[in-house]
Amino acid sequence: MRLERISDIAEQLRGVSYAKSDISMSPGEGFLPLLRANNVTDDGVEFDGLIYVNKKCVSQRQKLIIGDIVIAASSGSLSVVGKAAQLAANFNGTFGAFCKVIRPGPGVNARYLGHYFRTPAYRKKMSSLAAGANINNLRNEHIDDLEIPVPDINEQCRLAEILDRADDLRRKRRETLVMLDSLAQAVFFDLFGDPVLNPRNWDEDLCLGDVAELVSGITKGRKLNGSVTREVPYLAVANVQDKSLNLKAIKTIEATDDEIRRYRLMKDDLLLTEGGDPDKLGRGTLWNDAIEECIHQNHIFRVRLNSSRVHPIFLNWLVGSQRGKAYFLRSAKQTTGIASINMTQLRGFPLLVPPYPLQKKFADSISAIEKVKACHSAHSAAVNALFASLQDRAFRGEL
Question: How far apart, in Å, are the Cα atoms of 219 and each of 152, 279, 297?
Fold first, then answer.
């Protein structure tokens, strides 16, 4: 199997440069949709959040065609630079100056080349080449000088077919997880109706502070004045996702026994982040007791129910619903795109209180859905590992 430089088997194209006056936020006569770095994802090209550029800025060669590989070439984040996605369907559009396009030549299978630009080895190489002081950039030669193994065209087609099938398995697993999330949302609306309009006239006489104890967490860098401490795990904002926990990276902190007692998490505590992007307000999840003697930092509110009228799973979904988001957006303090809520505002969140048996029915349904999701997530992880192995072997000539 011979090694070929990318520049010998494909053409590299620069993105479209434009002035602010050449851009429209909506489609119109004389404008083309333009892909930017945020449209390039690990799952392919995304067409959300498009902007539109005047056709006069776009050369014929800068119009995208099926098989083009769009690369995010400039970003403040190394995790973004080098990310690549292949155009799999007709798209009458172009791409911006922070992107590059690799257009496969006649001597290479486009799908084979597209798969190369998704390999972990390629991404690692690009991260090492692009690192800059403030902004990370890929230069033309970074891509042109890459060497990849190029077997005969029939073998390229065979390898591309294998990787396509494995990738299709990954996609179906992801779609199943999305469908399960949609099912859970549908169950909520089916049982309770629109939580903003409350068409079923559920009780609205209680606020969150009436049914729960709310506590802010431990503060880093506080004065301990020589107190005896010990190291315990604690949750940071990054660990609290929307209805899920991310426990891959858990930090520790020195805390006194009194602090540990005060901030220690218990099963079914609702954890809510204090602030962040406005659309993330109300983001929270239930603690599952996965880590012994775990506490939480001060940018996370702990909500511990002390009333039998509200089920914790229902509360999690209610706070994260449009009812919660609308309330927190009205109440939040916002500065430079960051929104935050305080304890008083959180205590004042107006609850919707359906009969407890109905809440319990919802919780049982969600628990069943989560079990199915956990099974599919495990299978998805196995399929992802298989795909990574196939990628590695394909481009080492071992498949």
Answer: 61, 25, 6
Query: How many angstroms separate the CA atoms of 47 and 18, rounded?
Result: 20
The residue written with tokens 């996965």 in the block is 290
Query: What is the rounded distance in angstroms from the CA atom of residue 120 to the CA atom of residue 317?
Result: 36
> CB count, 10 Å around CB of 279?
10
Give the residue extent of every domain in the chain: 2-150, 151-202+354-399, 207-352
The b/e string for 36-66 (b: 16+ C-beta within 10 A; e otherwise) is bbebbeeebbeeeebbbbbeebbeeebbbee
pTM over cut 0.85: no
**Strand, coil or helix: 93:** coil
What's the rounded Cα separation, in Å, for the pair 47 and 113? 22
Whether domain 151-202+354-399 has CATH 1.10.287.1120: the reply is yes
User: Which overall architecture, per CATH, does domain 207-352 show?
Assistant: Alpha-Beta Complex (3.90)
CB atoms within 10 A of CB 391: 22
**Domain 2-150 identical in fold to domain 151-202+354-399:** no
The dotted CATH code for 2-150 is 3.90.220.20
Q: Is the dihedral of CA 143, 145, 147, 150 positive or negative?
A: positive
- Reported as a single tens digit per residue, the pLDDT across 7-34 is 999 999 999 999 999 999 999 999 999 9
Nearest C-alpha neighbor of 78 from the set 114, 123, 117: 123
Q: Write the pLDDT tens digit of every residue in 344-357.
A: 999 999 999 999 99
In angstroms, rounded to a whole number, what is the distance separating the alpha carbons of residues 159 and 111?
9
Which structure tokens are listed for 223?
């004065």
Cβ atoms within 10 Å, residue 258: 9
Beta pairing class for 23-24 and 51-54 = antiparallel
Predicted confidence (pLDDT) per residue in 273-301, tens digit: 987 777 777 789 999 999 999 999 999 99
